[in-house]
Design goal:
transmembrane helix; binds uridine-5'-diphosphate; binds nicotinamide-adenine-dinucleotide; UDP-glucuronate decarboxylase; alpha/beta; UDP-galactose 4-epimerase, domain 1; 9 helices; Rossmann fold; 7-stranded parallel β-sheet; about 300 residues
Length: about 300
């Protein structure tokens, strides 16, 4: 199987490339290194079944493949908010480019959608049938609305051109290879804890998220791609919900840190609760996360410690 992974030099993308290569597949990684890093795929370069294309997906490209995982998109709020127009272009023009490619070569395409399509949800836990509560003009809208139109484009290409589509709505994923400057909560807290700096909680820390270890997310994505008759959207996330304050305490404890917790202003439109209903993934994919938050954080702390030294 020849597989294209857009955003393959990013956090999730690089783990996915590695997993697919280990399964014996031929993998093409496409990335413009906006948030991805060459060092994430450095260990894969010797593999004869691995190729890398430096390309900005907002510009059309044609590659002959059997499957496409479309992951290209900055996922961290600080990065997508730094370039909101580019982010919207990627989810619209980029999506059209990659869907056109899927149509021309008859490839199956899986879109990495997000829990952000639910915005600041009013229903808990979030089922795939929930339409969400998104501020269309807020600071997160370039990402949230972009991902929503990307889902809409996927369905339009299926309807008009019979493209073989799959939509996975990924919830907060963490693990080794998160970028140091990523700005998301797990990497921020771990780096602060390891460096003995203050742990910066935005708001009161009562907001919740549900954190899924990267190894579980990868298995979910691959399973989703493999089943023939499931279009989705399907939630992929860990159903164990926790407050940001609890996460901070856990990271301080697991990293044996002396860091103090400090409270900073809550960013605008920061979702209050987020928790996936994963009954659909359990039923159709026989998938649910296996890594506990303690084991996952330990693994991630160990990786950050090694990188720091
Ligand atoms: P990431 O920022 O580490 O990876 C994104 C990759 O896309 C990077 O390598 C980046 O350089 C690349 N990219 C950005 N713009 C591009 C462009 N114009 N052309 C080509 N490549 C481009 O983020 P991630 O956490 O690995 O997320 C990967 C995907 O999963 C994203 O689509 C994201 O929206 C989705 N997702 C991630 C999470 C999460 O918790 N990590 C949650 C929900 C959805
Ligand atoms: N957050 C925090 N301190 C940080 C980084 C993030 O308290 O240093 C909070 C953030 O306000 C949000 C939660 O942690 O409520 C998750 O943030 P992240 O950026 O990781 O992901 P998202 O908001 O997209 O789920």
């Amino acid at each position: 199987m020849k597989i294209l992974v857009t955003g393959g030099a990013g956090f999730i993308g690089s783990h996915l490339c590695e997993y697919l290569l280990n399964q014996g597949e031929e993998v093409i990684c496409l990335d413009n290194y906006f948030t991805g890093q060459k060092k994430n795929i450095f260990n894969l370069l010797d593999n004869k079944r691995f190729e890398v294309i430096r390309h900005d997906l907002t510009v059309p490209i044609f590659v002959e493949v059997d499957q496409i995982y479309n992951l290209a998109c900055p996922a961290s709020p600080i990065h997508y908010q730094r370039r909101p127009i580019k982010t919207i272009k990627l989810s619209t023009l980029g999506m059209i480019n990659v869907l056109g490619m899927a149509r021309r070569c008859g490839a199956r395409i899986l879109q990495a959608s997000t829990s952000e399509v639910y915005g600041d949800p009013k229903e808990h836990p979030q089922k795939e049938s929930y339409w969400g509560n998104v501020n269309p003009i807020g600071p997160r809208s370039c990402y949230d609305e972009g991902k929503r139109v990307a889902e809409s484009l996927m369905f339009a290409y299926r309807k008009e051109n019979n493209v073989d589509i799959k939509i996975a709505r990924i919830f907060n994923t963490y693990g080794p290879r998160m970028a140091f400057n990523d700005g998301r909560v797990v990497s921020n807290f771990i780096l602060q804890a390891l460096k003995g700096k203050n742990i910066t909680i935005y708001g009161k820390g009562t907001q919740t998220r549900s954190f899924c270890h990267i190894s579980d997310t990868i298995l979910g994505l691959v399973k989703m791609m493999a089943v023939p008759d499931l279009i989705g959207p399907v939630n992929l996330g860990n159903p164990k919900e926790m407050t940001i304050l609890d996460l901070a305490k856990k990271i301080i404890k697991l990293s044996h840190s002396k860091s103090k917790i400090v409270f900073k202003p809550l960013p605008e439109d920061d979702p209050e609760r987020r928790n996936p209903d994963i009954s659909l993934a359990k039923k159709k994919l026989d998938w649910e996360p296996k890594v506990t938050i303690e084991a996952g954080l330990e693994d991630t702390i160990k990786w950050f410690k090694r990188e720091l030294s």
